[in-house]
UniProtKB/TrEMBL annotation:
Superkingdom of source: Eukaryota
Protein known as: Nicotianamine synthase
Top EC group: transferase
Species this chain originates from: Hibiscus trionum
Entry-linked PROSITE patterns: NAS
One Pfam family this sequence matches: NAS
One function term, GO molecular function aspect: nicotianamine synthase activity
Enzyme Commission number(s) of this protein: 2.5.1.43
Reaction it catalyzes: 3 S-adenosyl-L-methionine = nicotianamine + 3 S-methyl-5'-thioadenosine + 3 H(+)
GO biological process: nicotianamine biosynthetic process
């Protein structure tokens, strides 16, 4: 059992105590510095298994993940407000310092998705979209150009800010909609989606995450795709872990654990043909990522989603889209 004597755990404990003592987690020099140090500490490959942490460290980890989520929310709100002050917000997305990370994350997840879902989805849901819904915006702008996106968030203010960002774009304002509700309260509408993305911080502990996944399994159409973000090793101090055995009612198709500067793991699963939840885990499918995929040194010090890949002519894609 891993406890405080482990040097990495001791370092993370020290950072947790400093972060938890801050008067605010809104963007500032102190906040940026501490979260950067936290990410740097958690990135190197580690044999730590968070399921084997002693109770005290488990409790600390749970609190730390929630602090990370709060800081991430403040960061998105801050930049969404700045963007909304411009006449054409979507022309200025590069103001957000980690916009390029979203371009790379979306390319990565799109390529994984198309390996297992060759048909372009007609309708997608993103659960936990927040005030700066860059994943939906980037996917809709560059990858899924005919797909409609329903974005769900429990925070009305977050959705209001998100609507401000897309309202000036005649295309995206028609294809991106925003709903203020807990996804647990959405039932039969879930059958409309070909693909559902679940944000990393929807369900900040195992019980909450499993509750959401079980709900999706109950109402999603058989054959529909679920895309989840997870964490592995010491990175699990930053984000909740999605264990494939907890994805009941789905066939897990592929699980990607990066070993470099990419923080989040990616899990893709397909809703099982039967409506009954299966407790038998399906074997993981094999999938060779193209040679273009590799981890590079670019991460967000405030823990933004940072699954990364090389640029792959993204500038060319950007130049072909006029907001």
């Amino acid at each position: 059992m891993v406890c405080e004597q482990d040097p990495l755990v001791r370092k993370i404990r020290e950072l947790y105590e400093q972060i938890s003592s801050l008067s605010s987690l809104k963007p500032s020099e102190d906040v940026n510095t501490l979260f950067t140090q936290l990410v740097v500490a958690c990135i190197p490959p580690s044999l730590i298994d968070v399921t084997k942490l002693c109770k005290d460290i488990q409790d600390m980890r749970s609190k730390l993940i929630r602090l990370c989520g709060e800081a991430e929310g403040h960061l998105e709100t801050h930049f969404s407000t700045i963007l909304a002050s411009h006449e054409n917000p979507l022309c200025r997305l590069d103001i957000f310092p980690y916009y390029r990370n979203y371009l790379k994350l979306s390319q990565l997840e799109f390529d994984i998705l198309t390996k297992h879902c060759p048909n372009t989805p007609n309708k997608v849901a993103f659960v936990g979209s927040g005030p700066l819904p860059l994943t939906s915006i980037v996917l809709a702008s560059f990858h899924l150009k005919t797909t409609t996106f329903d974005n769900y968030d429990i925070d009305h203010m977050a959705n209001s800010k998100a609507i401000q960002l897309v309202s000036s774009d005649p295309d995206l304002s028609q294809r991106l909609s925003f709903h203020t509700t807990d996804i647990i309260n959405v039932t039969h509408a879930l059958k409309e989606y070909d693909v559902i993305f679940l944000a990393a911080l929807v369900g900040m502990d195992k019980d909450e995450k499993v509750k959401v996944i079980d709900h999706l399994a109950k109402y999603m159409n058989p054959g529909a795709i679920l895309m989840l973000r997870s964490a592995h090793g010491a990175r699990a101090f930053l984000y909740p872990v999605v264990d494939p055995c907890d994805i009941r009612g789905f066939e897990v198709l592929f699980e990607f654990h990066p070993t470099g500067e990419v923080i989040n793991s990616v899990v893709i699963a397909r809703k099982s043909p039967s409506d009954k939840h299966s407790t038998v885990q399906q074997p993981l499918g094999t999938m060779k990522l193209p040679d273009k995929f590799f981890d590079i040194e670019m991460f967000n010090p405030l823990l933004k989603h940072v699954n990364l890949m090389e640029e792959l002519d993204i500038e060319e894609q950007l130049s072909s889209k006029s907001f």
